[in-house]
Design goal:
The protein is α/β, with parallel strands linked by helices. The protein is built from 26 helices and 16 strands. The chain is 45% helix and 8% strand. Strands 2, 3, 4, 5, 6 and 7 form a 6-stranded parallel beta sheet that branches. The protein has a 5-stranded parallel beta sheet with strand order 10-9-8-11-12.
Length: 654
Amino acid sequence: MLLKSKFKLATAIGIVLSVLSLLAHLFLANYSAGGITKYSLHMDDVLPFGSRPRPCRLWGPLRTLDHLHPYAKPRKNYPAPANHNGFIYAKIYGGFEKIQSSICDLVAVARLLNATLVIPEIQATTRAKGISSKFKSFSYLYDEEHFIAALSDDVPIVRGLPKDLREARKKIKFPTVSPRNTATSEYYTTDVLPRLVKSKVIGIIINGGKCLQSILPASLEELQRLRCRVAFHALKFRPEIRSLGSQIVGRLRASGRPYLAYHPGLLRDTLAFHGCAELFQDIHTELIQYRRSQMIKRGTVKEQLSVDSVSIKINGSCPLMPEEVGILLQALGYPSTTIIYLAGSETFGGQRVVIPLRAMYANLVDRTSLCSPRELSDLVGPEAPLSSDMPHPPPPKSEKELIEEWKKAGPRPRPQPPPPARPFYAHEKEGWYGWIGENDTEPDPSPIEFRRQAHRLLWDALDYFVSVQADVFFPGFHNDGSGWPDYSSLIMGHRLYQTPSGITYRPDRRTVATLFENVSDHLYHPPRNWTMAARQHFNNSAGIEGIVMSAMMSKPVSFLAHPSPECTCRTAKSPAIQPVKDKHGGLFFGGEEECPDWMVRSLAMVSTKNNEPQSEDYEGELTEDDSSQDTQQESDRRDSNKSSEQDEEMDPDD
C-alpha cells in the first residue's frame, strides 16, 4: 500500500514538472519571438562594410552640390488676389505621376486667373466602386485639410461648389475646357478667363498629366515657385500613407545600413508607346503590341506597329532592364549585400523580370516583403465586397428536368453529346492579362480592375515617399520622350529640391547602350576600362554635368522634374559655377539667388551640431581620380590574386 502511494506521488510530481516545463518553454518561445522583426531583410546575408561603413563615393553627400538648399517662398512682390473671377473645378485622369503634376498646374492656373479652386476630382478613385468610404477622391491620396491651409495665402480653395452652383453643374450649365499639355498662360488669360468671368464657373478636364506649359515667361517666375510649394509642401499624403512609409524607411535602415531605391519604369503604356515589345517574350510581347495598336488607332503613336526594338533601345528610348541595372551597380562598386528597394506599383513582366537582379543582390525588397498584409489592407481601408469576374457555371438541373429533356430529345439512337469544354481555372483568369487566352480584343475594365487602379495610386504614393527618403535613387526609365510626366523624373525633381547633395543617378541611356553593345576586347583587360568608363559616366550623371543634361531634356516636359534654380538658393561661400541657359535665355543651372540670412544662420547651427570628424577616405564625391586611386590601391594589395580580382570586376556576361 505504501509502495503504491509513493508511486502515485512520483507520477503526480512528474506530471506537474512536465506541465511546468512545457509552460516555461512556451513562455520562452513567445518572449524570444517578440524581439524578432517579422518583416526583415536577409540579415544573414548582410555583411558589414568593415572600416568604411558609408563611403561618400557610393552614398553621398556630393560636395559639389551641398551649397544648394530648398527655398520656394515668394521673392518679389506677391500680393494676395484682389478680384474673385469665379470657381474652377477639375477632373484628373491618369496615374499617380499625372495626378501629382496636374494638381500643381491647376493651382498655378487658379492663381493666374484669380479664381477659387474646388478640390480636384481624381477619376481613378471616383470610378472605383466600393472603395473605402473613409476617403473620397482627393483625400484618397492627400491630406485635404493641410492642402487648403498650406495654400491659403496663394489661392482660395474650397471642398465643393456652393449649393446653387452645384445644382447648375449637374444640369451641365457651365462650360468645360480640355487644355493641351503645352497650354500657355496667354491661352488662359485670353480664352479661358472671359468664359470664367461670364459663367462664374468653368471645368477643366486633364488627360495628359499637365494643363500648363512647363517653362513660363520670366514675369511669371512666382508661379513656378508656387508649383514648388504645391508639390513639395502642400501635397502631403494622408497620415496613413506617411506613417506606413516612415515604418518602411525605418525597417530598411534597421540594420544601420543605407539603402538604394530603384524604379524599373517597366510600364505597359510606355513600352507600347516606344515600341519595346521585343525586349520581352511570349504573352508580354503580344500584350505590348495590342496596346500599341490601340495607340495607333487613337493617333497617339504615328509610327508603324512593328518596329526594331533593338535599334530603339540603342537610341535610348527603351528602359534599362533589371539585369543591366545589376551589372551597372556592380561596376559602380555597390556590394552584393546592398539593400535595394524596388519601387513602383507596376513592373511589367512581374517578378520574373527581376530575377536576374535579385540573383546579384539578395536584399532586393519591396513593400510586400516589408509590410504585412494587414498593414497594406489597413492603408486601403474597409471596402465593400465585389462579385468575382470569373464566369459562373450554369445552375444544376433537377432530376425531373433531366427526365423531361430525355423525353423531348428526339428519336433513338442518339449521338453522344460532345465533351464539355475545358473550364478556365481561377489562376488563368487573374490579372489584367487573363483575356488573351480567350479573346482577340481586350475587354472593358471590370469593377475589380477599377479598384486595382485605385490601389495602384496608394502603392505609387507609398513608394514615392520611400524613394524620396532613400540614400541613393536609380531610375530605370526617365525622360522617356513621350511628353507625359513620368514617375522617376518626379522623384528626381523632388530629391533635387529637398536634398540636392544626395546621390541621384541620371544616366544617359544612349551612352549606357553603347557600353553594353561595345565588344572591343581591350575594354575588358586591365586596368578594367569598361568598369571605369561606366563609373565615370554614372558619377558625372549624379553631379552638375548630369543635372544640366537632365534639365535640358526634362524641364521642357515637366517643371517638377527640375525645379532649379527657381526653387533653390545658394550659400554665400558656394563655388563659382557658370550659369547654363537654354536657347530662350532661361536658366537650367546656376544663377541661384543667395539664401536669406535667417536660413544661413539656421543652416550654420545645424552644421555645427552635426559636424563630426571624418576620415579623408569618406570625403568628397567619387571622381575619376578617386576611383583610379582606389582601384590602384586594391590591385597593389592583392597582386598575389590579380587574375581572380580582374574576373570579379569584368562584365559578368563575358
